[in-house]
Amino acid sequence: MKCFPFFNGNKKDEPEATKSRSVQSTNSNCTDAEMRTFGSDLNTQNVSNASTESLRRTSFPSLSQRHSNLRVFTVSELKSATKNFSRSVMVGEGGFGCVYKGLIKNVEDPSTKIEVAVKQLGKRGIQGHKEWVTEVNVLGVVEHPNLVKLLGYCAEDDERGIQRLLVYEFMPNRSVENHLSTLSETPLPWAMRLRIAQDAARGLTYLHEEMDFQIIFRDFKSSNILLDEQWNAKLSDFGLARLGPAEGLTHVSTAVVGTIGYAAPEYIQTGRVTSKSDVWSFGVFLYELITGRRPLDRNRPKNEQKLLEWVKPFLTDMKKFHLILDPRLKEKYSIKSAQKLAIVANRCLVRNRKNRPKMSQVLEMINRIVEASTETGSPQLPLMSLASEEASSDTKAKNRKAIMDLTSQESGWFVRMWAPKLLRTC
């Protein structure tokens, strides 16, 4: 049996209370007919097949090839910034190493200091160094409001060994995982969960489709989504990221790494990764937001440990759907928007990756849910088709019929959907 170097990614952070925001509760449920209509409207989008698209990608841009504004720090500077890497300022610990809160001089105003997060590479040898280099190469040349900003790095080799550190903007509200935890004093309000889904989708869309090269995240999960002072969500931890397939290729073959519960089935089975692998992980994340549960939780009863398995029975009957919603929300949510978000998750979780939407299409679906949920006194209309407005009516009708046929075939997705299996780790 093949061993997969999966890791659980559990951090030792103490969860911190999140700001509470009142969200108007609604008792109106989507009827089964409304849900079918909504689902068919989503499914009429032109779902393109990333495995057959000719992706024009350049070689991965390194710092030597493109201009970067990253600062180069010394170990002594970062020791001073973090009180000699004191545990009193440690804010996280993950697979890469420990993360410390620090203070560094503001380049724009040297008389002031700014808060930063300093990530120190653990003693993991060559593999850890490769992840460090990947992180610098990715965040050194990309910039987006929904990606954590890398400010600089440190690379020193001395008698004490290899010193590899990264310096990021500080994200005071920690990770989404922290706030979904049952240990969190207050739950994330529903409106904020929708906003987080929207922000995360924007970040992935940028990585997949909005540059002259494509980046596959490969480790998308709630602990890698951080929240800034204004509670904006930003993707972090790019150590496992990979450049998308070159022109003429359908996928990238890699070692199977990631976190159990998030990895796409075809990636686990073949080691072939595409942007659609991230789309699957995003679908799992949407169910995290809806339920407040982890993808895999050994502390729950056996029949509730695997999130995607647990939600199945509640998706066949809309009258039971409310039973999967995070009880800590105390019914302060829009049941219709939750049902629609579940439909988006289902589209991401189609077993055949060719039939999953692109992240730009997922983002558009979520945008429409957010728009509908924020309208006051207006009826919540089903999401419009994402098919091109320039398509002829005949083409639209044909596309709708084809997707409707596909939908009827996959209407039992919750029965036949890939069931996450326990994977032996090594």
* Average pLDDT: 76
Estimate nothing, just give the exact number of structural domains. 2
Please tell me what the overall shape is. Answer: globular
Task: Give the fraction of residues assigned to helices.
Answer: 25-40%
Helical segment count: 12
CATH class of the largest domain: Mainly Alpha
CATH structural fold name of the largest domain: Transferase(Phosphotransferase), domain 1
Radius of gyration: 22 Å
Describe this structure in words.
- This protein has 2 domains: 32-56 and 173-416, Transferase(Phosphotransferase), domain 1; 71-169, 2-Layer Sandwich (Phosphorylase Kinase, domain 1), CATH 3.30.200.20.
- The strands form 4 sheets. It has a 6-stranded mixed beta sheet with strand order 1-5-6-4-3-2, sandwiched between helices. Strands 7-10 form a two-stranded antiparallel ribbon. A two-stranded antiparallel ribbon has the order 8-9.
- It has 12 helices and 12 strands.
- The chain is globular and about 65 Å long.
- The termini are close together.
- The chain is α+β, with helices and mostly antiparallel strands.
- 32% of the residues lie in helices and 13% in strands.
